[in-house]
Design a protein that fits this description.
The complex is a heterodimer of chains A (302) and B (362). The longest helix of chain A has 31 residues. Chain A is mainly alpha-helical and 302 residues long. Chain A is flat and about 75 Å long. A six-stranded mixed β-sheet of chain B has the order 6-7-8-3-9-10, sandwiched between helices. Chain B has a five-stranded antiparallel β-sheet with strand order 13-12-11-14-20. A five-stranded antiparallel β-sheet of chain B has the order 15-19-16-17-18, with no helix packed on it. Chain B is elongated and about 75 Å long. The two termini of chain B are 31 Å apart. The chains are: A mainly alpha (302), B alpha+beta (362). Chains A and B meet through α9 and α10 of A and β6 and α2 of B.
Chain lengths: 302, 362
């Protein structure tokens, strides 16, 4: 107490004292709180609705917390809800998505990182042209490539299967991931690469022993980018999967929420949506700062 | 001469990036155990030449021989070279020991042998306490020492240095320069050293190759390059403060530029007969006699002091000689001021005379 009075009365020296409740601060934090409330409200409504029984939902107050908490909608969404004749809920879709996600993420990142490394450090004849072609690929709308892709997969005999979808995700992730890795590797000093060559390391030796251990951050960014991207994918899942039992989670969610028969079970819909969003949500929370870098990198994609 | 006498031979080496010629049919023989410095300003091709010797760049034409072997098409690791880079280029994720043993592991040297060699190199470079540290925890000087150690453990024939001291501060640079010289005297390996710093070149080299736009201008001992530069470019490049140049005429053994008349007594001409022609004379500021030494000088001038730059050990004095600015190096204790009258003495035998047009030494 005595300190502060001394602080304000003495001649300017040291750090300048700051006022916490200045007009600018109140305005800034006020807006931040308002905006976060605005964005959090839908989540609040979803969680509350998913914990209510249908009679309670029909009362109509969407913001009110449940009088009687029930987890039945969650159980039903996960394992009991019927689409058509199959009554297994979302769980088969979840496992399909996992089976699509894991190989797609690994395959696309492994290939793209080697691409980026080769493009930066082992320039070959036509490597610039190769890169330009890859980049053009990033700017062509997906819709244009859907039908040719269907034909290609059919010719390969993998149309409609999970394998086919893995191939599609790997290919469509390639331009942006290659760009990501190329840019990262080109920031690694060239002399490091030269030193490794003098030390007798070859293409794979330098990749595994020098480049890989140095580029963990960019691998994390790439994993985040791909996990969220592939998990949230709906279009490819609908187009390239022909059998209902192979549908990824997003497509199954759509089939539950958009079903036109029977009564709308809002609580089940909300629970199903939250379940589907859980994986990206967990990734967001775990990765924090790196996720922002992933978005920034993904911004190129538009 | 047999090829084995030379450690490294460059034969007719060409390198072009598209239409830009970086190296111009270069020939260079480097003796066994020689310390050769490639000196030049940036863009002269000195680092490019070093990268060609290392095998990191492919020449457009020509041959590179190391120890009597044509290594032109060989991988860098098969050439018996070790290289030290300007940015140290240490592998950040490996310890000092890991950095030094990386090359040996790639060459499948047995672990016992690796341990022995790393220990020996570490003791030579006095980095034993640092072996378990990562490069991030080292100072610049220590990092460069580790980088030298990485080349040392591989028992190579030829050491290549690519501006190894340029990233260090002035004091460390001087220290490490001495260490590199000591290392060379101890190991007696062939060393090729690229730098743009003439002090490093003069102090370290057995021979200096001064390069300009892909050509070697002069290849000689530091002494010869300093005293008898082959052309005006070399004369201007070597020496600090740099040489004074006066444009004039050479006539019957005398250099004339207005009021400046210098009979070239005792000057060693490059050719037995030198015809009269427009010429440029070059005189080093440190070769100008002042004070008591003027009496012994063959030619004397009375000049006025224009500007004084005291530097502690010396004083650089700008005077007007024949209306042109002219630098004179005086003792650090000299007390001269703007406007003072001064008598300077010039010894033509220490000067350099160049053709005005071709800039070649006469």
């Amino acid at each position: 107490m005595a300190d502060t009075s001394v602080n304000t009365s003495r001649s300017p020296r040291g750090p300048k004292p700051k006022r916490i409740f200045s007009g600018a601060n109140i305005l800034l934090y006020g807006i931040l709180v308002l905006v976060s409330l605005y964005y959090l409200l839908p989540l609040w409504v979803m969680i509350m609705t998913s914990l209510k029984t249908m009679p309670e939902i029909r009362i109509g107050n969407v913001f009110a917390p449940p009088v009687e908490i029930t987890f039945q909608p969650w159980i039903q969404a996960w394992s009991q809800h019927c689409t058509g004749l199959v009554c297994k809920g979302l769980s088969p879709g979840f496992w399909n998505s996992v089976q699509i996600l894991v190989p797609s993420v690994i395959l696309s990142i492994v290939i793209a990182s080697i691409n980026g490394y080769a493009l930066v450090n082992w320039r070959f004849k036509g490597s610039e042209v190769f890169f330009v072609i890859l980049m053009i690929g990033a700017f062509i709308p997906y819709q244009i490539m859907l039908y040719p892709m269907v034909i290609m997969l059919r010719e390969l005999g993998v149309y409609g299967s999970l394998t086919g979808l893995v191939i599609v995700h790997t290919i469509f992730g390639m331009p942006i991931l290659t760009l990501l890795f190329r840019n990262y590797f080109s920031s690694v000093p060239e002399e490091l690469f030269k030193a490794a060559r003098v030390d007798g390391a070859g293409f794979w030796g330098i990749y595994f022993r020098i480049m890989l251990p140095m580029s963990l951050p960019i691998f994390v960014v790439a994993i985040i980018l791909q996990v969220t991207g592939i998990w949230n994918d709906f279009l490819f899942g609908v187009v390239f999967i022909s059998k209902a039992e192979n549908y990824p989670m997003t497509v199954q969610l759509n089939n539950i929420v958009n079903s036109v028969q029977g009564i709308k079970e809002y609580n089940v819909n909300m629970a199903a949506t939250l379940l589907t969003g859980l994986v990206p949500l967990v990734v967001y929370f775990l990765s924090g700062k790196l996720f922002v870098r992933g978005i920034a990198a993904g911004a190129v994609k538009g | 001469m047999s090829t084995n006498k030379y450690s490294v031979q460059i034969k007719d080496l060409d390198l072009a990036f598209g239409a830009v010629k970086v190296l111009n049919s270069l020939d260079l023989d480097i003796g066994e155990g020689e310390f050769l410095v490639l000196l030049g300003s940036s863009g002269c091709g000195k680092s490019t030449l070093l990268n060609c010797i290392a095998g990191l760049l492919e020449p457009t034409d020509g041959e590179i021989w190391i120890k009597g072997d044509n290594v032109t098409w060989k991988e860098p690791s098969e050439r018996g070279i070790g290289m030290v880079f300007q940015s140290y280029a240490l592998y950040p994720q490996m310890t000092v020991e890991g950095n030094m043993s990386f090359g040996l592991k790639n060459a499948r040297v047995p672990p016992d042998e690796i341990k022995k060699r790393v220990a020996r190199a570490a003791s030579v470079l006095q980095i034993e306490p640092l072996l378990q540290r990562k490069p991030g925890a080292l100072s610049g000087g220590q990092r460069q020492r580790v980088a030298i150690g990485r080349a040392l453990v591989r028992d190579v024939d030829v050491f290549l240095f690519d501006e190894p001291l340029s990233n260090l501060d002035a004091k460390l640079r001087a220290d490490l320069r001495v260490e590199i010289k000591r290392l060379h005297e101890q190991l007696k390996n062939t060393m090729i050293y690229v730098t743009h710093d003439q002090v490093e070149a003069m102090t370290l080299a057995d021979r200096i190759a001064i390069m300009k736009s892909g050509n070697i201008m002069q290849l000689s001992t530091p002494h010869e390059i300093y005293n008898r530069p082959v052309n005006k470019y070399v004369a201007d490049f070597i020496g600090s403060p740099s040489m004074n140049f006066i444009d004039g005429h050479f006539e019957k053994g005398t250099f004339k530029a207005g009021s400046v008349v210098l009979p070239m007594v005792g000057y060693e001409y490059g050719a037995p007969q030198v015809a009269d022609r427009p010429a440029t004379i070059g005189i080093r500021p440190e070769h100008v006699a002042t004070g008591a030494l003027v009496a012994a000088a063959p030619v004397k001038f009375d000049v006025m002091v224009d500007l004084v730059e005291p530097m502690g050990s010396d004083t650089l004095v700008w005077v007007k000689l024949g209306d042109k600015p002219f630098r004179v190096r005086m003792d650090g204790q000299a007390r001269v001021h703007h406007g003072d009258q001064l008598t300077i003495g010039i010894d033509p035998s220490k000067a350099s005379l160049f053709d005005a047009k071709t800039e070649v030494r006469l």
